[in-house]
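Researcher: Sequence recovery benchmark, item below. Answer with residues only.
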């Protein structure tokens, strides 16, 4: 299996192989959420954080039984995953903050190679789809 190719054509590092786990140099595997709930998922969404510098970090994967989701629902599930991984916080409050950030262009979302700009847009999911969250940095004085 080759590298994951994001929308800019640069290969991303593969998630780390299972290892010793927390508290060691190897954090263990990137978590998959949903597989236990849904059985055999229709598709797996690989979630990737990327900075304008080009640094990309796989966050985890979501098992998704639907063939179509709104951008809003993809964002909601990504936020829920992050809250679960950190073990603290209010998922609904975090989701509302993420929606405000999206509306203010604090980050861009790409599903595959296509930028999505409307939270209510319905996205057709492909097998092993990638969703990239590109965090934008405000310019000084801008």
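Model:
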């Amino acid at each position: 299996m080759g590298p994951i190719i994001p929308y800019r054509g640069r290969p991303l590092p593969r998630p780390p192989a299972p290892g010793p786990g927390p508290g060691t140099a190897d954090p263990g595997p990137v978590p998959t959420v949903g597989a236990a709930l849904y059985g055999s998922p229709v598709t797996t969404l690989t979630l990737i954080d990327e900075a304008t510098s080009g640094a990309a970090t796989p966050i985890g994967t979501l098992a998704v039984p639907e063939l179509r989701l709104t951008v809003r629902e993809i964002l909601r599930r990504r936020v829920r995953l992050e809250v679960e991984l950190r073990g603290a916080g209010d998922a609904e409050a975090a989701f509302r903050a993420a929606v405000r950030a999206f509306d203010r262009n604090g980050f861009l979302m790409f599903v595959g190679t296509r930028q999505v700009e409307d939270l209510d847009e319905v996205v057709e999911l492909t097998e092993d789809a990638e969703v990239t969250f590109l965090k934008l940095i405000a310019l000084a004085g801008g």
